[in-house]
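Subject: Sanity check before I submit

Could someone independently write out the C-alpha cells for this chain? I want to compare against mine line by line before I put it in a report. The sequence has 135 residues.
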Amino acid sequence: MVAHPGGLIHCATMLILNDLSLYRSARLLFKGASLTIFPGHKVGLTGANGTGKSSLFGLIRGEIKQDHGEFSLPPGWVIAHVAQEMPAVDTAAVDYVMAGDEELARLHLELQQAEAADDGARIAALHARLDAIGG
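---
Independent answer below. Compare away.
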C-alpha cells in the first residue's frame, strides 16, 4: 500500500520504478531512478537525444529488462505508443494513432452500424461505453 492524496492505493494499481538502473551497451542511462505513476495520471517525459527516453519506454513495454532495481506494471494495463518513425501511409497521423486503440475503433464502427439501423438503445449503450473509456 502507498499513501496517495486520495487515500491508500494498492501497489498492483500503479506503475512503479524503484532504484532502477538501465544500461544500453556499456553506457549508463540512469541509475537509482524511482517513480510511481498512479491510474489516471498524465505523464510527460522530455530530454536530449540519447538520454534513455526510448529505452525507458522499451522497459515499460516489456521489450528490455532493467539492469538493477525493481519495475512493476499492473496486470491488465494497456500501454499505447506510437513509434518514433511512422510507416508511409495515406492516413492522417491522428487517424493512424486512433486506429491503434482497438476498442475505440470497434466502438466507432458499431456506432456507425447502430446509427444506420436506427437502433436507439444500441446507440445509447455505445455512447455510454465511449464515455466510460474517454472515447
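---
OP: Matches mine. For the report I'm noting this point. The beta strands are 2-4, 7-9, 15-24, 27-37, 68-72.
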